[in-house]
Amino acid sequence: xxxxxxxxxxxxxxxxxxxxxxxxxxxxxxxxxxxxxxxxxxxxxxxxxxxxxxxxxxxxxxxxxxxxxxxxxxxxxxxxxxxxxxxxxxxxxxxxxxxxxxxxxxxxxxxxxxxxxxxxxxxxxxxxxxxxxxxxxxxxxxxxxxxxxxxxxxxxxxxxxxxxxxxxxxxxxxxxxxxxxxxxxxxxxxxxxxxxxxxxxxxxxxxxxxxxxxxxx
Length: 217
Ligand code: GLU
Fold this sequence. Notes:
By secondary structure, the protein is α+β, with helices and mostly antiparallel strands. It is 33% helix and 14% strand.
């Protein structure tokens, strides 16, 4: 199999040691397999991720000698692509609008997993069209995926086999914020899928947030 690795920083600041380690390991792994190595700037949240920080990260990578193949895609310029995949999910009946406030989501009564993450309680899962219309008058909704009752398993190169029951350990998650900005969870999967990425090296903090679906639609 032809290896395609990638480094996909969110430029919310200057490169830090965690980024350097991640980039170095991803680059070494791809290059030692004679594979391609891609660089993608994950600047979906343009307020937090200005172009000036992206430029500095790119300069630092050049200085470190970590080279990449092809053009650098900026996620902030790919809204139309994410909208296409959002439409596909909507057509499949997998999306619904969510009007919950951040405070409501993190209320003490919300179910918390042992690591402190909150599984969405499904408050807006089954709103009627009338209820949705009524709520829309007061607040713009975020968009959530209705996860199926399914257990997924993948093998991580460091942690081994990882299994998660979507409804219990992940819950319905947001793919687009109420201000229209797409969430990392959708964009990263679309971009990795479309660019044919075969291996991902990323921080441990993201271990539980990722499962790549088949994007061949
Ligand atoms: N953009 C993410 C970050 O900088 C990492 C993305 C990924 O590796 O999937 O934290």
